Write the structure tokens for this entry.
Amino acid sequence: MADQVHSVAVQAEKRWAIAVGAVIGALLAMILYMSVHWATMPPVRTETVDPATLHLAGEFVESNLGSVPTADGGVAVRVVASQYSFTPQCIEVPVDTPVTLRATSADVVHGFSVTHTNVNLMLVPGYVSTFRARFRHTGDFLMPCHEYCGTGHAAMWAHVRVVGKDEFARHAAQAGRVDCVQR
């Protein structure tokens, strides 16, 4: 009887050892496959930019920063973060309109969130961060840096001003590129 109980226990342990070994083998196979896949085919949505030449040429030169209407009826916003400010300091966007935020950092890791919204971006030097949003209410919203970036971090903030669609259209017609610092 004891030999029979012992052989049943050994068989059960062997089955469990095989099952656990199979799970571990499957997980290792998945890790290996994904490692090879990511090494040979990086994500297509990763955009890079040279932080040393942001101000000289390309999408993030100072004359391109701020809000601009797009052909599809939305608004594109470009922002650059650097110790210890955002450029532009105030972003103006129209209410209830698709907004595409594109931002990068010129020096260290920064981040920002816009209060009372789901906007939350990490800004890493050398990479472009993109976020699509729609602001449902007019008003001024704070935009603090939420990643510690040095001794002046506590003073690094900007704000987003959400205005009516007609008001934004007037400002865009006057200046082309809109930011509320001009007003």
Summary: Residues 18 and 82 are 55 Å apart (CA to CA). The longest helix spans residues 2-40.
